[in-house]
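Look at a sample.

——
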Amino acid sequence: QVQLVESGGGSVQAGGSLTLSCAISGYTYIKAWFRQAPGKEREGVATIVVGTGNTYYIDSVKGRFTISQDNAKNTLYLQMNSLNPEDTAMYYCAADQTSIFYPRRFDPLAYSYWGHGTQVTVSS
């Protein structure tokens, strides 16, 4: 059984930065960060393949967000820079034990394991 626990959310002004962490127990093949704003669908933000370290991002965060992993600490990170109010959402880490290929990398239905989320609020 895979367990995920997020931390690091908070409130920040536009242009600021935050780093989210997700402690993961159990074997995973792929890990990801999703977010969900009020009244909107959950959307994938970034994914990383555990074995290769290959990363993928949605266009709106490219160049601003960085997903990374520390396998020794079993921790997933999301470094978020140049935050804007449109980034305000509950952020979730997710993982699966099987490979997930395009175009399903950012499909929440493709991931079996989820954390409870951490809130990120960006004020203008």
Summary: The mean pLDDT is 96. The radius of gyration is 13 Å. The longest strand covers residues 18-25. The chain is about 0% helix and 50% strand.
